[in-house]
Structure formats: C-alpha cells, structure tokens
Task: inverse folding
C-alpha cells in the first residue's frame, strides 16, 4: 500500500453548539492510522477546498457564539469536501470509551483510548470516502428500504427510536454502504472451481470431523465446596476396587452421583472439544477399555472409562463444496474491498488535523507519524 504524505497542519479552532444524542455505535473495518496509506491528489490545498473550509468555519462559528453552552470544537480531518469534527469523533468513541473506562485504569486506559481514537478516525474517514463514492455512483436508498431495515432490526431484538432523525440517518447510511460495496466490490467477485479445490487442500483440517469417544464415568460429588475429604476418600475406595477387578458398571451404579449412574455410568458418544480439558487430557492416553486415574474437575471427582474411539475423519470435497464456496467468496470479497478502499484513498484529498486526544489534554507533539516515503 502506498505511503501517505500529510499536508502542513493548520490549527483551525471554531466554536459550535452542543450536538444531538449519540447514534448507535457502528463497527467498520478499521486499522491504526499510523499504517494507513493516505495520499492527496496534489501537495497544495486547492482553492475550492480552502473556500469550502472557510465557508464551513464561518457558518459554524457564529452559531456557537450565540449558544449558551459553548464547547470547543475543531476540524480533525478533511476528506475531499467533507469535514470531520472533534465532536463527531467524540460521539463515535463514546460507547468504546465507556467500556474501556470500566475495564482499564491509568496508563493502560490512556494507551487503549489512544488506539481507539486512531481506529475511530480511520473508520470515519473510510466511511466518508465510501459514502462519497456512493453519491458519485448515484447509489440511493429509498424510504421503504429504511423502514424495512428498521423493522428487521426490531424483529432481531434491537431497540431503535424512529422519531430520532440521527437514528434514521444512521440506518440510511448503513444501507448506502452495503449497496455501494455490493455494486462496486461483491458483484465482480467470481469463485472458480479451481479456487475452491485449492482452498480445500490448504485447509483440510477445517473440514475434518473431530475424534469421537464413547465413555462411561463414575462421578463423586463433595458435600460442599469446602468439604471434599469424604468425596476424596470415596473415590480412592472406588479406584482400589476397580484395580481389584470389580465391575465398572456395578461400582457406577453403587457409588456414582452422576445422572447416568443407573446405566452403569455410560455417557455415550462425545466429540473432541466437548469435554472438560482435564478429561480430554486423561482419555487422550487411553485405549478402548482403559480406565483413567482420578480426575478432579469443577464438578467433583471423576473416573472415566474409554469404551471406544473413532479417529478424525476428513469429509470429501463434494460434501463441503457449498461451504467452501462461501468461504472463498468471503475471502476474495475482502481482498477486493481492501484494494477498492485503497484506491479511493489514493484518489482522495485527505488531510489529518488530529493533534490531541479527544479524551484528554492536548499532546505535546503530533499524534500521527506518517511514513517518510511515497510510492507513485
């Protein structure tokens, strides 16, 4: 991906009134801005863009002066003719910031928030570029499509206030992004049979059926979490009697606290990965008919007998062909999407003016560290 070159940052500061309530958090593909490639068409700000920014600042500032609750705001990025304001970025970050403040403290919180700021700004820039491309390509979303999407969201248990214009604008925006990506990216992705066969050969383990075990168990439960002495003594006695040749089924029927005690402790068929890690490690060493040592788990004390073991089986290509087709299509779509997005960035005028963390005091130096080289 080509390196990016930042224009000399100028610190426009404007005043704006308070903003509306935060829209629902949206997850988009994002990465740290420090490794994202941005390169403008030209190395000097074009006259039309300077005029656009000047007019935007002129319109915003007077409104703020008239506001009773003044808050400092400023431009953090310019994406072609669109501005991204600090207040927009703060709204974008609100859910993630609240989550992090519950989990982290001190320097760790500061580092996590800084990373989140980079990712949020990257996501917002990428979203602007895609929406601009949608407008260029005349991609439109009808009111009926918005209403249908809202209905689907409600059926899935999501809560959305249809009287809030910001919420409805958010839904329309998401539908627009889906449409433009479908048209410009997914519609051109083709999956050949050779692609699927190659994927199958490279990921055969993914389509294998795991080992299967037929097991029986004797489960001894302690009277309470703090009183395990009796349970330990009981399971030691069971192990002693098993070694002396007594029937596993009889001992399970007599001593086991498990729900399958009446069936001689027989659990039946289970697959690798479905058992507690301690039990899986124990039976991995057994051959059919073998009995484990005492296994202490969160449930109590267990003794397990391996009745039968079925090795891992590889499903044939024809059986998993449809599944592979979806996986390869998804992989190819992601590759094409990233290439398309990089092309939008290379064609765009993007200026980053983010020099201070929105969640704390201004930093002493530039936050972003662009690459020193560029590829034409």
Result:
């Amino acid at each position: 991906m080509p390196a990016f070159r930042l224009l000399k940052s100028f610190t426009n500061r404007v005043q704006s009134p308070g903003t509306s309530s935060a829209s629902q958090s949206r997850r988009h593909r994002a990465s740290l801005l420090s490794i994202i490639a941005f390169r403008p068409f030209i190395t000097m700000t074009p006259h039309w863009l300077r005029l656009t920014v000047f007019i935007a600042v002129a319109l915003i500032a007077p409104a703020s002066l008239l506001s009773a609750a003044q808050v400092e705001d400023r431009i953090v990025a310019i994406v072609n003719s669109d501005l991204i304001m600090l207040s927009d970025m703060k709204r974008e970050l609100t859910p993630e910031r609240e989550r992090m403040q519950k989990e982290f403290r001190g320097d760790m919180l500061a580092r996590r928030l800084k990373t989140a700021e980079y990712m949020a700004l990257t996501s917002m820039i990428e979203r602007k570029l895609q929406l601009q491309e949608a407008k260029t390509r005349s991609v439109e979303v009808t009111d009926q499509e918005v209403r249908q999407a809202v209905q689907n969201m409600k059926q899935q248990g999501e809560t959305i206030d249809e009287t809030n214009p910001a919420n409805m604008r958010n839904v329309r925006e998401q539908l627009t992004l889906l449409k433009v990506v479908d048209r410009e990216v997914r519609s051109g992705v083709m999956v050949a049979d050779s692609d699927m066969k190659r994927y199958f050969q490279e990921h055969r383990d993914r389509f294998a059926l795991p080992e299967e075990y037929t097991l029986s168990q004797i489960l001894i439960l302690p009277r309470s979490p703090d009183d395990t002495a009796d349970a330990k003594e009981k399971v030691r006695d069971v192990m002693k009697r098993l070694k002396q040749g007594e029937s596993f089924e009889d001992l399970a029927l007599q001593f086991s606290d498990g729900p399958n005690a009446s069936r001689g402790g027989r659990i039946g068929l289970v697959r690798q990965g479905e058992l507690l890690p301690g039990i899986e490690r124990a039976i991995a060493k057994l051959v059919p008919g073998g009995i484990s040592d005492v296994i202490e788990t969160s449930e109590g004390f267990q003794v397990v007998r391996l009745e039968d073991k079925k090795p891992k089986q590889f499903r044939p290509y024809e059986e998993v062909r449809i599944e592979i087709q979806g996986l390869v299509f998804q992989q190819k779509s992601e590759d094409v999407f990233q290439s398309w997005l990089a092309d939008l960035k290379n064609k765009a005028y993007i200026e980053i003016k983010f020099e201070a963390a929105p969640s704390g005091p201004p930093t002493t130096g530039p936050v972003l560290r662009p690459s020193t080289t560029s590829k034409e």
Q: What stands out?
A: The chain is about 45% helix and 15% strand.
